[in-house]
């Protein structure tokens, strides 16, 4: 089953496919740009999206509800919904394509804006330079791909420097790196230029080829026992496979 929505000529057509169990968002191609399990719409269905929550390993669990998460590139709204509904924190998303927002609200159970949820329609590169956001974001999720899904559309040292400026002192950025081109090393170098090599952690790629990289505003090297203790809490409280993450999640610079 496929449902389609028209959008402006400059932006790709937004479509939704559904096999009865999992619903997918597409931007003009068969590439999956986001997914939702129909009977559990606020869970994180895709493995790489679950890994985008690795910032939880670096904060006290008791402080989570007081934090602010921002998602650049709404996709199917999975991260924003999870942060809002499951983590119960303040969530902001920035999305360029207004039809993505319409489809998320109509087909992906994205709640309406409210006191702790806000979706901003606009260019993420410009929006994150607004001084009102500086130092206010504790968890920044960057997943910005065009309809070709070949490489990130924003991936320069200057862009990542703007991202770093958004973060609170113990804030983290997680980035989805995926594409048919060999852009991983270039992306990593751009992040290192903005954050410093000591600030970067990376997962091994998923089976689908997504590599999630985490960058800390203030670099730290928690001991494995501390990370495991946090992972156990994350897994028990929010149902994420966090203890398994530690097998495939390491500092980029040892």
TrEMBL record:
<keyword id="KW-0620">Polyamine biosynthesis</keyword>
<dbReference type="GO" id="GO:0006596">
    <property type="term" value="P:polyamine biosynthetic process"/>
</dbReference>
<protein>
    <submittedName>
        <fullName>Spermidine synthase</fullName>
    </submittedName>
</protein>
<dbReference type="InterPro" id="IPR029063">
    <property type="entry name" value="SAM-dependent_MTases_sf"/>
</dbReference>
């Amino acid at each position: 089953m496929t449902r389609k929505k028209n959008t402006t000529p400059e932006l790709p057509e937004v479509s939704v496919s559904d096999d009865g169990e999992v619903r997918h968002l597409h931007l003009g191609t068969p590439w999956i740009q986001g997914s939702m399990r129909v009977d559990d719409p606020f869970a994180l269905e895709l493995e790489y999206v679950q890994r985008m929550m690795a910032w939880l390993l670096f904060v006290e669990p008791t402080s989570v509800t007081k934090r602010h998460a921002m998602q650049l590139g709404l996709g199917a709204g999975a991260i924003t919904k999870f942060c809002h509904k499951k983590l119960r924190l303040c969530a902001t998303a920035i999305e360029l394509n207004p039809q993505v927002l319409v489809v998320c609200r109509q087909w992906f159970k994205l709640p309406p804006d409210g006191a702790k949820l806000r979706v901003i329609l606009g260019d993420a590169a410009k929006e994150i330079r607004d001084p009102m956001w500086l130092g206010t974001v504790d968890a920044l999720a960057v997943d910005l791909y065009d309809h070709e899904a070949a490489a990130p559309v924003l991936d320069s040292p200057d862009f990542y420097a703007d991202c770093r400026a958004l973060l609170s002192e113990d804030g983290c950025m997680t980035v989805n790196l995926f594409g048919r081109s060999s852009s991983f090393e270039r992306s990593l170098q751009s992040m290192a230029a903005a954050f410093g090599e000591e600030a970067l952690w990376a997962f091994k790629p998923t089976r689908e080829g997504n590599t999630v990289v985490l960058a800390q505003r203030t670099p730290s090297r928690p001991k494995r026992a501390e990370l495991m203790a946090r992972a156990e809490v994350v897994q028990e409280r929010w149902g994420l496979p966090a203890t398994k993450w530690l097998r495939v999640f390491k500092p980029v610079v040892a």
